Amino acid sequence: MCSYDHWSFMDSSETSDQLTIVNRSNEHKISERLIRIVPYFDRILKESKDKIIELDFDDKALKSFLNWLESNTVSIEMDYVMHLYSMMDCFEIKGYMMVHFLSFRVKDLVQQDCINYFNDNFSLKYLPVIIPQATPVSKLITSSRLNAFICRYFLKIANTNVWLDYPVETIEYMCSLVLMIHSEYQVFDAIMKWIKAKADSRKGYIERLLKLVRWCHLEDKYLPKMKEQVQSLNCQPSKLSSFRKRDCDLTCNRTKQEYFIQICNSCIQGLRIIIYDNNFYPLIEKVVNSNKSMTIDFLHVEHVSDIFFDSGEEGVRIDWKRNEYRWLDRSQYKTYFLDIHNYIQEKDFWKDNNPGPSCEYNFKFSGVLLFEADEKYMLICNSWLLECWPANAELISKYFRTNGPNKLRATILDDNIYFLANSDFIKLNINTNEETIIGLERFKNRLHFDNLLITSRKANDDRVFLIDKFTKDVFCFNVNTHQWSSMGRIVNCKNKSVVEQKESNALSKTFTFTSGTSESTNLPFFQASTNKLPTFTSTFISLNTMRTMRMAHNENSTN
């Protein structure tokens, strides 16, 4: 709870004309003279001589409001802060109020206190009380912004101890959203973690919660593991078969929200963006325009994506609905990622999760890069000595730098980081720090480190991609077979070229990219100073956003 002192209005004991406010099932006594300061109540009392006023507000918020009128102090807690903010509007407190001949913006004072309190205290532990307060038009945070946050960071939320303490209603609400996941098994696993934390009292919820797994989109390979987990709770695994037969929305596949993105530089029309599906089929091509005034609030709406590329060196925020973008200033990176960890990280998490002295020494003198894995962020030592550690707010604050040279090219796929380091291609397990040197003998004297991009999906895939930014050659590494294949070359779609397949054992599906070359007269808006592919990476885009963009794209194609 937080209290804020304002001006003292008046002592309610000065008058005996008490009236009663009945709010839902609770009664509150207050001076009529005092309550008439509020325009909403003054109007009601002018229209009626009744000494009883009936209301229907959150009672904690109303009590805080009435205490503020009587005592000059407003008390704020997270379970009613949003109701209190909205109440100031409902009570028609607009502009200035006259109290004892003092004029001041009381509405602004209290509402700013609410804003400050919410921003300073928002964290995962408060989601059970924030979710019921959030609506499409609520202040401080709308339900759409809150849902976008939950969907984007669900796997990280479910990987905290806070998740284990949520009430069943919060678990149910969150698992019903269009979560950004790679497999429905991840939802199942999150539910089972919560149930097993207090199995005796929670296993009765298993059927209720497993209905939230979208079984029609679940891969069969996970069924044996799921049956084993259900059996461990003394539940019948036959229930899983009945769940699989349920109707399912085939058009809403939560596991298909990660896309490959090509970003091309532009000097006139903005950034040219091409979005590809998992098989590199081009879905959408569009130009987004620069807007340096675009907000960079962390709690944004679902049609906004923050895309980090070039091993975390560069970042851009794209508003797909407004067709706008803003480069993320490197000086803001640390604040951005600290916000993420302060919202998601549990209090005192860092005390038991700091690296050893040797790792901290390397972090201090070499600096670190920050990468996003499926369930957490990882700090990676920015040197040829490879070490990684789960990120926390303290480590980010101490060691994360954005102004030093980047000696690494890396991407994270499942539980492994894949590095390009000098002439080696290296796999590092993020859980064990076990290092495996794969080598790049095949590409000896063909590829230059400074020209290379490396990218992948974050999970549930078996491919890592290596791209030469100058030649635009694309190579695929299969993480299961440890085999390389040449996928071809990124060519200019505007000139209707085809992809050049270089090897017979390359992927059977030929795909076409659009290059960012300035040599083509058909692409006048690309920077003439370079023929280099700016970037190619992966990012999450919500299903609703993609549907809207594809509809607009199809309409433009037919016109």
From TrEMBL:
The keyword Repeat applies. Residues 128-227 form the BACK domain. Keywords: Kelch repeat, Repeat. Pfam families: BACK. InterPro entries: BACK, SKP1/BTB/POZ_sf. This is BACK domain-containing protein. It comes from Tetranychus urticae.
